Amino acid sequence: MRISDFIERTSNATSPNKITDLFKRAISSRGYERFAYGMLTNYGRYKFRDGITPPALAVDYPDAWVKHYFEQDYLSIDPIISRSPVMRQPYLWDELSELSPAQNMFMSEANEAGLGHGICVPIHGPFGESFAISMTSDNKDADPSRVSGELHVLATQYHSAFFELIVEEPKSTHVVRLTPRERECLVWSARGKSSWDTGEILDISEHTVNFHLKNSMAKLDASSRILAVVKAIRTGLILP
Description:
Blueprint: H1 3-12, H2 16-28, E1 34-41, E2 56-59, H3 63-71, H4 79-83, E3 91-92, H5 101-115, E4 117-124, E5 130-137, H6 144-166, H7 180-190, H8 195-202, H9 206-219, H10 225-234
Antiparallel strand pairs: 1-2, 1-5, 3-4, 4-5
């Protein structure tokens, strides 16, 4: 499934289950079979629908592993839970270091359960919320470097679409207005261009590009460039 199709279809979906089904199809086509999506901090400010109780928002891990995870209280030692709130970029589970003996045992058991090759996308909300979406592959030869950028976009869009449907809060009536230059910078960012590349294309400085992207992020209430791009596409402000 193309990323543009995924964004369009999840943006128009009316149920969390449909969004999850689309997400599973999208990551599966990129070699990742299972995922877990959690809200790690500040979830007391929200009321959730459908009996959802954070930190777990959507989990597609084997039932036996989920049961074992909570029976052993692995929530208290899970390094993905503790590290994600301070991480800004996607990271591989294999890159986790300085683990305690208990955490090493936990990761070993996850590997035995078929969840050994994972990539985690941390997401940060505007009010101090931290989220994490982990995607796993049982293929030891999986090459996350080839698809990590696409998984980052897919996970960010999944969070944006899914979270909107599971929380009980009024939708904002605030109208976002981007300047032409802000739109241009977002479009080139959506096409994978760096600030330097965008500056060369638009004949402006890298500093000016960053200035417009930061303004766009503030207007779109986005904590990262990629989330700003996703929101701008979803609301029709840009067409990549």
